[in-house]
Amino acid sequence: MLLVKVEAGYRVRVATSTSAPQPQQTPSLTGTPVVPGVGYGPVVVARGEVSSTAVAAFGTGGFADPDAALAAYDDAAAAVAAGYAAKAERATGHVAEVMTASAGLASDRGLRGAVRKNLRDGDDLLASVHGAVEQFVAVFTQLGGLMAERVTDLLDIERRLVARLVGEPEPGLPTLPAPSILVAEDLAPADTAGLDPALVLALVTERGGPTSHTAIIARQLAIPCVVGVEDVLEIAPGTVVLVDGARGSVQVEPDPGWARQQVTAAARDRAAHDAWTGPGRTADGLAVKILANVADAPSAALAAQGPVEGVGLFRTELCFLNQTAEPSVEEQAGIYERVLGAFGAGQHVVVRTLDAGSDKPVAFATLPGEENPALGVRGLRLSFGNPGLMDRQLDAVAMAATATGTETWVMAPMVATVAEAADFGAKVRARGMKAGVMVEVPSAALLAHRMLEEVDFLSIGTNDLTQYTMAADRMASQLAHLTDAWQPAVLQLIAITAEAGRRAGKPVGVCGEAAADPLLACVLVGMGITSLSMAAAAAPPVGARLAAVTSEQCEDAAEAALAATDPASGRAAVLELLG
Ligand SMILES: C=C(OP(=O)(O)O)C(=O)O
Ligand SMILES: [Mg+2]
């Protein structure tokens, strides 16, 4: 039986720590390491909400008269508008448009007039601002359509105005005055879209695990990142810290000489990895495709410049996070064309159909108010009640594939049954493209051999496969020890899936975050995984690591990781084997 075959030859290994000793430094916080690399600089905090303590302390503001209060409002509104304008300058496309419109709205004369009237009627400043915004919200809602969509922007403006007035940093992603360490409770997907790697030296969050979206975006942008760091929000803004994304540590006010040494050493490591140019293969020549995960045309263009052989995961839903209405087939085809067009001969692109729902809110697709959205109507399941949504997207992908001539494979997320795979496979093949399904639910891994009778390839989404195997929310930082793809149970399901692919002679890739971990990548290859897809920035370290080991070493590593009792001992055993 397959399970027994995979488990045969267990060897128990003693966990040993191989990390270099950390010099004694003043307070250090630790979390889950996500993106290796070192960042050293002052902390800037991105807050979700204005603190109620600051609002209470501000009270009525103690202004001498309404004109003095209005002058304070003018200052705050100008600062908020300038913040939006600066963001608009750095952004592109839809985000830039929204930021520019918000800058205009924050300094709108009508809004100012409503605040002035409320002040003259005797309201205090915060109540006047709130009343004026409410008045605008009512008008915009009544107007409907595009104006109604601006209500969220108005509420964001109010939060920022209040923050400015009570003397707090604006909530959400702040405008970084200089290269800084960004600290947050967590970042919303829309916030992460505005991260500038030139200004964010490292990213540290209090919440979230290694597969949270903050982690995924940080990897995509190659920003050193540590998540799940308890108490990190206690660090005062401006404090200088050193973040080590490989160790998962945040050193507060370290010795500057020592910190600079760490930065130099990290830069040296990075230069060594960057020398790897592909294609992916082990030292003894076993070919393993190294592919990129992309989110839109700019990330595809960036990935295409690197040493990857195509795209293993195009997360289409990320193109639509800010969109309230479903784009037409032609509009979608245009978006997909820009991604597919970045890749040419000898490369292929795997497009994933909309994975809306749960942690990826897409306004025109996600079902509102689900009790347990991670186990609800998400991914492929959205097409059960709305088959047109899937059909229109597949039509658009097929149009883009024809227009670009790029070899296009299409896969569905959250497939749980063989019937779903058969239905999806037929739809994709009818449009002349290769069909696949993601293995994200344990049922799909257990029946991988039957899924492969219906489709051309499988792609393992280790982020969700880990979440559903371990029954642990991928966003829950207190469960980060469970939401770890090194968990032997998760590895067992991957091994079963890879073995099914080997027997069927069909490709089985990994496109979850596990593929971006150089050590785990060797384990996956040892199990028979044929491609690894990851944030483009992670490709060189993974490719360089694979090039340094033989396929036999990878098989030994797989055996050791499967035999381990927990992720830590698995990592240690594999490190011991591979060096
Ligand atoms: C690649 C995956 O999909 P996402 O992270 O977008 O849910 C996964 O679940 O591993
Ligand atoms: Mg997933």
UniProtKB/TrEMBL annotation:
Q: Active-site residues?
A: 213 (tele-phosphohistidine intermediate), 511 (proton donor)
Gene Ontology BP terms: phosphoenolpyruvate-dependent sugar phosphotransferase system
- List the InterPro entries hit by this protein, alphabetically: PEP-util_enz_mobile_dom (IPR008279), PEP-utilizing_PTS_enzyme (IPR050499), PEP_util_AS (IPR018274), PEP_util_C (IPR000121), PEP_util_CS (IPR023151), Phosphohistidine_dom_sf (IPR036637), PTS_EI (IPR024692), PTS_EI-like (IPR006318)
PEP-utilising enzyme C-terminal domain sequence ranges: 279-548
| Annotated compartments | Cytoplasm
Q: Where does phosphoenolpyruvate bind?
A: 315, 352, 463-464, 474
Q: Does the keyword Metal-binding apply?
A: yes
Q: What is its EC number?
A: 2.7.3.9
Its cellular-component GO annotations read: cytoplasm
GO MF, any single term: metal ion binding
Q: What does this protein do?
A: General (non sugar-specific) component of the phosphoenolpyruvate-dependent sugar phosphotransferase system (sugar PTS). This major carbohydrate active-transport system catalyzes the phosphorylation of incoming sugar substrates concomitantly with their translocation across the cell membrane. Enzyme I transfers the phosphoryl group from phosphoenolpyruvate (PEP) to the phosphoryl carrier protein (HPr).
Q: Which family does it belong to?
A: Belongs to the PEP-utilizing enzyme family.
Q: What is this protein called?
A: Phosphoenolpyruvate-protein phosphotransferase
Name the encoding gene, please. Answer: ptsI
